[in-house]
Amino acid sequence: MALLHSDVLCPYCLQKLRSRDLKTVCNICGKLVTPTRTESLLKKIPKCKKPGCKGFGSVKQCSHCDFKLPSDILDYEKYLRFSILGITGSGKTNFLTTMLHELRHTSGSPWVLSPMDADTTTIFQQNDKEIVASSIPQNILNWSTSASHDTDASADMVDGLATYIRHNCGIAPGKLINKDVAVVFTKIDAVKDTFGSATVMQPSPHLACKGFVKADADAVDAEIRDWLESQGENTFLDAIDINFEKSRVRFFGVSSFGQPPTGRNQLGKVMPHRVLDPLIWMLSKEGIVPTL
């Protein structure tokens, strides 16, 4: 059995996985399979011991939740974990779908993606078809027509997240959290006129430069912060500042569609804008891509 990294989590219950936390089950009957001494020594896939079953113990399950684990969960040298949070209607699904699409299809992208299971494949293909292939549901069009949302609700979400992190990471109440946070303005196209020729409205340089371009990101960070302040969104900004170390927080502006709808139930060609920027920043923090 491969040696597990200390930072591997079950993608379903989010519990840490150690060698003893993995169950080997038969790919046909689903029964628990215990490798023989010989199978273990020779690193052979164990045969199912159930009489009459010709299956193999090739399926790994989490012992905490019993969900089937991705077959390649043990195969990587590094694991990048991140969560996406946002209030209802803030554009999370559109952002994540277009981000994955850009990773797969943008010329020059150095990364290869593979879904962790059949369900993930089905969900991604459905979302990708609806958004990128312009089979756009009406609710998606309605969501993209305005950048406004309840910032008090967003501030409450930030406070709730901070409380959760402090509780689970043993961080004292009131102490700033030293975790990296990307604050993503997901509908920058809806207010693009207010930004004019600002850096955030220019094409992203990170992928073309094969690294995280800090000067560009610094300019975008300042522009988004200044815009939020000018709109009186101090409750949300204060929630960020009183909970997280400022040096670990970076603001981004993205657009999943690249433009607002041209009319009711009508959307032009989907042209995602800067949707890879937050991910490239996180990759740079992990040393996977260089900071330029």
Describe what you observe in this structure.
This protein is mainly alpha-helical. The chain has helices at residues 37-41, 92-105, 118-132, 138-143, 151-169, 192-195, 206-209, 214-230, 234-241, 277-285; strands spanning 22-25, 59-62, 181-185, 249-253. The strands form two sheets. The protein has a two-stranded antiparallel sheet with strand order 1-2. It has a two-stranded parallel sheet with strand order 3-4. Helix 2 (92-105) crosses helix 3 and helix 5 (151-169) packs parallel to helix 9. The radius of gyration is 22 Å and the shape is globular.
List strands and helices in order, with pairings.
Layout lengths: L21 E4 L11 H5 L17 E4 L29 H14 L12 H15 L5 H6 L7 H19 L11 E5 L6 H4 L10 H4 L4 H17 L3 H8 L7 E5 L23 H9 L7
Parallel strand pairs: 3-4
Antiparallel strand pairs: 1-2
Helix pairs in contact: 2-3, 5-9
Number of helices: 10
Stretches where pLDDT is under 50 for at least 5 consecutive residues are 1-5, 135-149
Q: What is the CA–CA distance across the termini?
A: 39 Å
Beta percentage is: 5-15%
What's the total number of strands?
Answer: 4
Helix content: 25-40%
Radius of gyration (Å) = 22 Å
Mean pLDDT: 81
Order of helices and strands: EHEHHHHEHHHHEH
Spatial sequence of strands, sheet with the most strands: 1-2
Q: How is the main sheet built? A: 2 strands, antiparallel
Would you tell me the structural class of the helices and strands?
A: mainly alpha
Shape descriptor: globular
